[in-house]
UniProtKB/TrEMBL annotation:
Position of the signal peptide: none
Organism: Streptomyces fimbriatus
Ranges for domain Flavin reductase like: 22-166
GO MF annotation: an example: oxidoreductase activity
EC number per UniProt: 1.-.-.-
Keywords, comma-separated and alphabetical: Oxidoreductase
Protein name, entry field: Flavin reductase family protein
First-tier enzyme category under EC: oxidoreductase
Length: 169
């Protein structure tokens, strides 16, 4: 049997260890949106996951220190947008603290349940929030899909090694 890593380099659990390991993990990029009291809110997420086919449910994580959390904490509905590789700047805008996320550079419209729906994405869904589960400095949001559109164009945007990337063939 051949060892694939040196156990001598193992480190104790820490926020830095978790970040370092997950930099090696390629993840799809999504933007989560909601209607806030003073307008639309949103953030970039790499934690989107399918949870159940029947009923159709998904999950994502949101930091409780983020500017979108107060709206996500009370919103009954969220928008979930799968980004394409042509949307690196959009992903960066929704990831950047203090950015004007719904400014003139962001094309969007009000969708079902009043949720902000981004234009020109490969796929989007509007979901009903089922629960928010405490998980350290985040909450895991479980949501049931109500309506969506998977017919947009573009290859998926990925996040890997701290950068947005496209798929390579």
């Amino acid at each position: 049997m051949t060892a694939t890593s040196d156990l001598g380099t193992a480190r104790p659990a820490s926020p830095d260890l978790l970040r370092s390991v997950f930099r090696k993990h390629a993840a799809g990029v999504a933007v989560i949106t909601a209607r806030g009291r003073s307008g639309p809110v949103g953030f970039t997420a790499t934690s989107l996951a399918s949870v159940s086919a029947d009923p159709p449910m998904l999950s994502f994580a949101v930091g409780t220190g983020g500017s979108s959390w107060p709206a996500i904490a009370v919103s009954g509905h969220v928008g979930v947008h799968v980004l394409g590789e042509h949307q690196q700047e959009l992903a960066a805008t929704f990831a950047r603290s203090g950015a004007d996320r719904f400014g003139p550079a962001t094309a969007w419209r009000e969708g079902p349940e009043g949720v902000p729906v981004l234009d020109d994405v490969p796929a989007w869904m509007v979901c009903k929030v089922v629960t928010r589960v405490p998980a350290g400095d985040h909450r895991i949001v479980l949501a049931e899909v109500l309506v969506g559109d998977p017919t947009g164009h573009g290859r998926p945007l990925l996040y890997h090694q701290g950068r947005f990337n496209g798929l390579r063939d």
